[in-house]
Amino acid sequence: MKSALATTTLAVLVLAPGSGAHAMSKHEPAFSQVIIDELEARDADEGTVTAWEASAWYGRDLNKLYLSTEGERLMDGGGDTEGFETRVAWSRAFAPFWDWQLGARRDWQPDDPNRDWASIGIQGLAPYRFETDVNLFVGEEGLTNLRLEAEYELLFTQKLILVPAVEANLYGREDDELGVGEGLTDIEAGLRLRYEIRREFAPYVGVNWERQFGDTAAKTRAAGGEVSETTLVAGVRLWF
Length: 240
What we know:
Helix content is 9%, strand content 61%. The chain has helices spanning 4-15, 214-222, and strands spanning 31-44, 47-59, 63-74, 81-95, 98-108, 115-126, 130-139, 144-151, 154-155, 160-171, 183-195, 201-212, 228-239.
């Protein structure tokens, strides 16, 4: 999602009058970008957690190869990775400010079984400049996961930017092995204030909130876990 703005800006150039495919050279140059949108420490109940969210793309105006990863790692008590995911997709601009993507995702678990998914989704700028990412993942044994993400950048100055973000996950059926129930499983919301020393380097501080719902929350409680957590965060945003 975090590279949607750069991706869809290029899409506008493609779809604007006079800039269509007929005007492009066969030797149109390829572009690339890497964005580490979140690289942060969280003060969680179990100790200090390092969390990351990064994406990259490579390609031309209409078609790109898109890669992303996100996850968490507990720094105390041996530094165990709590879980992370990787995604790869083909991304194509279909309208000004919008791309659709077709690809695959893998969930990596330290103890539990890994999960593989096919994915289809769209990302772009919704009205009022909300960065939006909607993905449907179809996994093994009939598992499905709908993920909705939205983010907004509120500029106090050209360098001081407040970023509220929210993510929600819904599952079509339960996954007992991973303790995931059917329906709305979790919501994660964050509020981060960053200062762009340079556009490519921006430290930030903020707060992150996570909450499980429904059968997923019931499974977590039964296992002795917490269904809600609020953490203070500090990190840096990078791109190149």
